[in-house]
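tool=predict chain=A
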Amino acid sequence: MTRLCALLALLLAFVLPVQAERLISTLSNDTIEITSSFDGERMTFFGNIAPAAGSEKRYVEGPFHVIVVILGPTQDRVARRMTHNFGVWLNTEQVTFSKFPSYFHVLSSDRLREITDVTTLTSNFILPESHAMVPNQAGWWETMVFGREIIRLMTEEGLFGVQENGVNFLSDTFYSAQLTLPANAPPGPYIAQTYVFKDGEIIARKSEGFAVRKIGFERFLAQSATQYPLLYGLACVVLALFTGWLGGMIFRR
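tool=predict ok
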């Protein structure tokens, strides 16, 4: 048994590739606070490609490419198709996407198709279209059609995007990238997934999290609407009635 285990370990050593590189990275902010005057926030991602821990190498050899994927909180999202029937626009078809990202942005050091192949980009959910290719009970064709439309609409809103050449190498191994979160960035937990490529293969990766959260009165309103929806709705109705009455009294004078 001992000899068999030793033989298996030896075979695995030849079969499995040795990770010769590791990624050391960080980001400028771990928390972004949304207030009434929030109009966006710029984030910076830094990183360095170094020899793996315990490696005898003092430096690594490139050239390298880096892709940073920023993923916002996921949620169930419904895409609907409106058709004109008898003079009225109606929702006739819809597809529900479960755990669909509310924010998705890609930064890369070169064109994505020049860094690696489409299969690698799709299987690692680096392409925006990857999230529309998840199996859905609506069928693959409807999923693709509605998925592309929802990605197009979210791109127009600034919530989806691909910024090729958005990662800059300051040396052979040290890089930086900047991203401006829009004013309508959804609050919640975010993940920045960084991939290091060499010769089209992923040789290192690292995930880092940060949070976008509301503070002050905006946080109070958001929590009230979520935790006490009935009271929140009644308060909005009362406020609307009071505002209408006050406006009538002012203009009457």
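The chain has two domains: 16-214, 215-253. The chain has six helices and twelve strands.
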